Amino acid sequence: MAASKGLVGIMTTRKAGGRPFAEGRFFRELFQAARLVGVRLIVFSPLDINWEQGTVLGFVYRPGVGWQARYYPVPRIVYDRLFPSRGRWGLYFSQAARMRRAFRVTMMGRGLHGKWQMYRIVRRYEDLRPYLPETRLGSGRNLAIMLSRYDTVFVKPVFGSGGMGIASIRRASGGFTVDRVGHPRLRVNSLAGAVAALGGLNRRYLIQQGLKLNYLRGSTFDIRAIVQKNGEGQWQISGKAVRVGRRGNITSNLHTGGRAYSVTSVLQHSFGEKAEQIEQELDQLAIRVAQVMNKHAGPLCDLGLDMGVDVSGKVWLIEVNSKPGRKVFLQIGDREGRQKVVRTLMEYAKYLGEQRRQGR
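RE: above sequence
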């Protein structure tokens, strides 16, 4: 059996069959990048660890052959891509925690504890506070306060991605308009009716100031930036793209029908001479937020930052995701950008391996 020295693992969930992983394409790209930078890579589930022998059923991808499995030593450097179903979160994460302790694993990154954690960390910093839309934990009282201040507010699950569970509440004549992703628009005549339309409101949700983001082709847009630690352990922006929501949708997420475009071209179209300055501000904000989040919620290696630019050209920080998707690069045809994102992950894994060998 091969030694664990230099072995890097992608930790995920798996299923039976020839396509054992939901992110199969991404993982295949990681194997290609690993070969280029000289990293030995496997994909595994923490449920497949043999604790007595210190081994795990690991999968490797062979071009033209497919996925092949055998037992390997538990990797000492692990990249977390766990997305368990709701009822199995506890099982997977207890096994992952046991693995970290038992084998002194170096994690490349970790999951953030929801959107509220990000907001609380970032608002500590005076230079970052102006970029944050006002945000409160979910309650009827906080909803009333926010709607007294803003024409529109957004209600978001503290945990979640892909735009699912997000709703907007807009003040309208004689009441409110409630838009929920995947549901028909509702008109209600009271705050209690708005809460009922949401199916209730508690601390598992955030209430956020609605932003007057700029428009492209009749829809609001935001910017997804992928910020990563590189082969020297330093933060860099590996790629970014504009996401434009489907007309009438309240989110720009690709999962809900959004489209992706080049950042530079959209900013130039929308802001003309101010575009270069705005893009520089977006880049500086992304790096600064990554450094702050790593300090307080790390170790992190790979973040997706969602930022917005309103009609006046002001930049806003909307969300920080610790397990970002990369579909935006495929949509804009930026294969080089996607390859850079994937390769950077493996370069950072190699860097961590060298640090371990040097006892750092």
